[in-house]
Amino acid sequence: MSVIPTWWVIFREPNPAQMDIVAVEPAPSVADAQDARCAEFVQAGQHAYVITAPDADAASDIAGRVWARELVSTPARLAAADAYLAANSRTE
Predict the structure, then answer these.
(1) Which of 37, 33, 35 is nearest to 23 (CA)?
(2) Predicted confidence band of residue 28 (pLDDT cuts 50, 70, 90)
(3) CB within 8 A of 44, min separation 6: which ones?
(4) Which residues 6+ apart lie within 8 Å of 52 measured at CB?
(5) Helices 56-73 & 75-88, crossing angle to 10 degrees?
(6) Sheet with 18-26, side-by-side order of all strands
């Protein structure tokens, strides 16, 4: 039986309607390392999803879908994204 690895998909949200994946890395196995890495995310204005997936690409894809699902299922986030897009849309 093979173990499916756990990944940290690190991302930032430059605006309410956008997610940029910064990195995908194996999750630290030691609690102190996890705490230190989380502090680095906070300092950098980043977030992370912890995803179990066979590889980094699959983890990245899953994180993108999770982020999108959270966006559309949270009324306040969706309203903020809609407002941002309306205020920044170009008519050409």
Answers:
(1) 37
(2) confident
(3) 12
(4) 4, 5, 6, 7, 59
(5) 90
(6) 18-26, 6-15, 47-52
- Between CA 52 and CA 45 the distance in angstroms is 23
Is residue 11 classed exposed, middle or buried when 0-12, 13-18 and 19+ CB atoms within 10 A define those classes? buried
Q: Is the pTM of this model over 0.90?
A: no
pLDDT in tens, 30-74: 888 888 888 998 999 999 999 999 999 999 999 999 999 999 999
Question: What amino acid occupies position 54?
Answer: P
- Write a three-state SS string for 34-58: HHHHHHHHHHHCCEEEEEECCCHHH
**Whole-number Å distance between alpha carbons of 85 and 5:** 36
